[in-house]
TrEMBL record:
<feature type="domain" description="ABM">
    <location>
        <begin position="23"/>
        <end position="95"/>
    </location>
</feature>
<keyword id="KW-0503">Monooxygenase</keyword>
<keyword id="KW-0560">Oxidoreductase</keyword>
<dbReference type="InterPro" id="IPR007138">
    <property type="entry name" value="ABM_dom"/>
</dbReference>
<dbReference type="Pfam" id="PF03992">
    <property type="entry name" value="ABM"/>
</dbReference>
<protein>
    <submittedName>
        <fullName>Antibiotic biosynthesis monooxygenase</fullName>
    </submittedName>
</protein>
<dbReference type="InterPro" id="IPR011008">
    <property type="entry name" value="Dimeric_a/b-barrel"/>
</dbReference>
<dbReference type="GO" id="GO:0004497">
    <property type="term" value="F:monooxygenase activity"/>
</dbReference>
Length: 124
C-alpha cells in the first residue's frame, strides 16, 4: 500500500481534487523501498491502465531518478481535477493500490501551467 504525504502541508492533495478550474497536471513523486523498483513500476503500469481508460485522462509519463536514486515521478495530465478524482475513487484504481510495494511513499500534487513572458505559455 502507498502512504500519501502532502508536498505542501497547507494544501491537502485530496482537497485539490475539488477544484473546478479546468485542466490539471498531477505530479506524483514516489520514494520506492530499496530493491522494489520493478514491483513499483509494475504496480504503476496497472494503475495507469485504469487511469488511461478513465474519462478526462490526457497523458502520463514516468521518470526515474538517476545515480541510484529511489525516486520515481509520474506526471499525468487530466482534463479536470474532477475527472482525476473520479478515477482515483474508482473500484479499479482502489484495487490496484495494494500492488504497490509496502513502504512506498507518494507525494502527489496538482498543478497548472503558468505563462512566463518570453519563456513559456500557459496553453498547450
Amino acid at each position: 500500500m502507498v502512504e500519501i504525504i502532502n508536498v505542501d502541508s497547507d494544501t491537502d492533495f485530496f482537497a485539490q481534487l475539488d477544484d473546478d478550474g479546468g485542466p490539471v497536471t498531477l505530479v506524483n513523486t514516489f520514494v520506492v523501498p530499496e530493491g522494489k523498483y520493478d514491483q513499483m513500476v509494475e504496480a504503476w503500469r496497472l494503475d495507469s491502465e485504469v487511469m488511461k481508460a478513465a474519462k478526462g485522462f490526457i497523458s502520463a509519463q514516468l521518470y526515474r531518478g538517476i545515480h541510484g536514486s529511489r525516486v520515481v515521478t509520474n506526471v499525468a495530465v487530466w482534463e479536470s481535477a474532477e475527472d482525476l478524482r473520479n478515477a482515483i475513487n474508482s473500484e479499479g484504481f482502489i484495487a490496484v493500490l495494494s500492488k504497490y510495494p509496502e513502504g512506498t511513499v507518494a507525494y502527489p500534487h496538482l498543478l497548472r501551467r503558468v505563462a512566463v513572458p518570453g519563456v513559456c505559455t500557459s496553453t498547450s
